[in-house]
Amino acid sequence: xxxxxxxxxxxxxxxxxxxxxxxxxxxxxxxxxxxxxxxxxxxxxxxxxxxxxxxxxxxxxxxxxxxxxxxxxxxxxxxxxxxxxxxxxxxxxxxxxxxxxxxxxxxxxxxxxxxxxxxxxxxxxxxxxxxxxxxxxxxxxxxxxxxxxxxxxxxxxxxxxxxxxxxxxxxxxxxxxxxxxxxxxxxxxxxxxxxxxxxxxxxxxxxxxxxxx
Length: 213
Description:
The chain is mainly alpha-helical. The protein is 58% helix and 0% strand. The chain has helices at residues 7-20, 33-42, 48-61, 65-69, 73-80, 86-103, 112-115, 123-134, 143-152, 160-170, 176-189, 208-211. The protein starts with 6 loop residues before the first helix and ends with a helix.
């Protein structure tokens, strides 16, 4: 069963997460909204560290929607092989690039709805690009955010859309994007999947997993 947190508890929780993770921000390296889009597509079931190693070399050769739109899958695949699921990712990146060129005048669309019309772009990817590249308010639910939302007690669901809605209802809109990064960093560096470090956690008194209620 989900817990109910009042506004003061939410603020205190976010403040304590900020103290623990003062550098919490997107860890993918990019220069343009399009490069961020490519990096987020590559990050599916792959670490940001690995993606950054790949894009560091990739973006020196191909960096714009026009560049990628002219590629065939077999040309792109070798560059992104180490990210996993490279055939599907190559297909989606090229298809999205061609749509950006033909449907959006070569510019990455800046709304969640339009972003989701691109190949390989689901709600999580759209939320990341919308919030990070365009400064929009959104909560992207990846595996870390989903795990923490359930552990802390914001929700009791494995459905990313339900988790997103629960977090949006609990957290004030102006904090959505930063809260998303705080939760990701907390999941990566403190509340890991296999062995959560509750001894180092400053929000454990709020946590359903830690308190048992």
